[in-house]
């Protein structure tokens, strides 16, 4: 009479667990970076939309002063707060500051369209000419 083997051996289970562990060690950090980059697009969209709104405000008022209280100014969200700094008759700087899980990220845009990254968490980097959206200081915008 032959005996039929049923189930898995301990070695087979240990190898499967090791493979799953290696895959998780690679997948979780990559997924976390992906989620952060998705949340960054919120700030990029708001700042990019605020620039033409500021120009419209200026054409109506001949100053940027007061744009921070205009209805077209980006509202604060769960991930970013927006502020208007240095608003004069001819210049402004709009700042998006990360809050909560996005704390540490600080992006700006000014009246000439200059995009800067003035703050970021360790490993992301800063830039005086673009919005950093990848670790290592890389920009794709």
Enumerate the strands of the largest sheet in spatial order, edge to edge or round the barrel: 1-2-3-4
Distance N to C terminus: 71 Å
Number of domains: 1
Which stretches of 5+ consecutive residues score pLDDT under 50?
none
Mean model confidence by pLDDT: 93
Please give a structural write-up.
The chain has 141 residues and is of the alpha+beta class. It has one domain. Helix content is 37%, strand content 16%. The protein is built from 1 helix and 4 strands; from the N terminus they run αββββ. The protein has one helix spanning 10-61; strands at 80-85, 93-98, 106-110, 115-119. Strand 3 (106-110) and strand 4 form a beta hairpin. The longest helix is centred in the N-terminal third of the chain and has 52 residues, at 10-61. The radius of gyration is 24 Å and the shape is rod-shaped.
List its salient traits.
141 residues, four-stranded antiparallel sheet, 4 strands, rod-shaped
Please provide a brief summary of the model.
With 141 residues, this protein is α+β, with helices and mostly antiparallel strands.
List the helices and strands and how they pair.
Elements: H1 10-61, E1 80-85, E2 93-98, E3 106-110, E4 115-119
Antiparallel strand pairs: 1-2, 2-3, 3-4
